[in-house]
Amino acid sequence: MTAAVGEHSRLDLGPLLRPASIAIVGASATPDIISGLPQRMLAQHGYRGAVYPVNPRHDSIDGLRCYPGIGAVPDPVDIALVVVNAERVNTVVAECGRAGARFVVIISSGFAEQSDGGRRQRELRALCDQFPRMRVLGPNAEGLMNVVDAIPVGFSPTINYDRGLDRLIAGDVAVVAQSGGLGFALFNDGLGRGLGFSHVVSTGNEVDLDLADVAEHLVQDPATRVLLLFVEGLTDPGRLAKIGAAARAQGKQVIAAKVGTTAAGRRAALAHTAHDPGDGAQFARALDEGGVLLAADQEELVDLAMVFSRTRVPAGRRVGVVTTSGGAGTWLADDLVLAGLRLPVLGAGTQERLRALIPAYGSAANPVDTTAQVLSRGGISPVLRLLADSGEVDALVLVATLADAKQLEREQEELIALAGQVPLVIYSYTRPAPRSLRLLEQFGIAAFTSGRRTAAALAALTREVTAAG
């Protein structure tokens, strides 16, 4: 359990997120096991700081001198990454404290999340008090990733080029999760959609540093604009509400998902990271007061991160829809209205100008159904431009197929200019081609693959716009 404010020396988390030196205690010469992966992944990503493998059974690992204990490391250590068996963790942490390590990140499991680990975690907590200048992340964590500086501290396959990582995308979205698997899954999902990240941090059982500590730091991080949180349990939801309010004051947004709202979920949370989920309704009320958005699942977390990262906040709730598919546009219209947004019927003058751009069998009302024929008549951008300049809508949704990237390629300059003028998102009623996702990443335009998800994202973006807007 995390110490109350003032009971424990608080340090700047900068060296945790951007360490100049990392000791791997329990480093292995076997490259494909958990204790062998961190050193290889640091090398993969070109980490330029000092790396110190610590294991008395080896003289060197992958060309780096190996030390018998962290006390033998000759230089200061920002992070001691602990990958030894649970029975040895507390001994190692005490050695780290005596050696002056600034942060300890404990990957090892076998603490309060299992029946015989409670005593071990209490002893670990006592060590945190014994060495107040050393802060501990974990145990039972999956590590962290500084995406901006390409610094992996952990073993997740989502940050491993040998296990499926295609590329890192640096951006303004950070993830803090009490579940390492879910935290890095959010990162993985976002990367697959072209979303850029600043940091991913898993906090595990939180014997010392907790999710709120990390979130509080990242809200002040210039590289971070959107903060995603996966929460199993918090002793003080009000603190998270204050973090949310601080974020909003800086034009940033905190988005959280809270699990453990049922008896089965509470039982699972206690078994996973020993967190007590608490009162879900109280948690929701506190976060709402702080302007923190609640997401229903991991897909919605990434959707909301996408729209807040890439889209300007509309001045009102009036949405103009331009579609090349009448059916998809109709379905989206229902979704937008059900989400609390408005689709005003366009004025006669605007409709008359639109009819000059679309086939006679299209529709100039709203949604504007251009039909697919518009793509061979000058493209979709002139239609979007006309709506953007009309003053009759506050945001635009383009409904199109992105299975082929040619349309985006042909109209990229116009789409980029439009997105800079008016909030613009895309609903692709087909799965986007990889090339389309790369282009949208370059354009800075959010895209979704269902009308409901498009509507939910836009509604969240306009949450504080007055109903009259």
* Percent of residues in helices: 25-40%
Q: Could you report the average pLDDT, rounded to the nearest whole number?
A: 92
Care to count the β-strands? Answer: 19
Main sheet specs = 7 strands, mixed
Evaluate the radius of gyration: 25 Å
**Structural classification:** alpha/beta
Q: Low-confidence parts, pLDDT < 50 over ≥5 residues?
A: 1-10
Residues in β-strands, percent: 15-25%
Count of alpha and pi helical runs: 17
Global shape: elongated
Distance between the termini: 45 Å
Order of strands in the sheet with the most strands? 9-8-11-10-12-13-14
Give a written overview of the molecule.
By secondary structure, this protein is α/β, with parallel strands linked by helices. 37% of the residues lie in helices and 17% in strands. It has 17 helices and 19 strands. It has helices at residues 14-17, 37-44, 86-99, 118-130, 180-192, 211-219, 237-249, 263-273, 280-289, 298-310, 326-338, 348-355, 381-390, 406-410, 412-421, 434-443, 451-461, and strands at residues 21-25, 50-54, 60-61, 64-65, 79-82, 103-106, 135-137, 143-146, 151-154, 170-177, 197-202, 226-231, 253-258, 293-294, 319-323, 368-369, 395-400, 424-428, 446-448. The strands form 4 sheets. Strands 9-8-11-10-12-13-14 form a 7-stranded mixed β-sheet, sandwiched between helices. Helix 16 links the parallel strand 18 (424-428) and strand 19 (446-448). Residues 1-10 have low confidence and may be disordered.
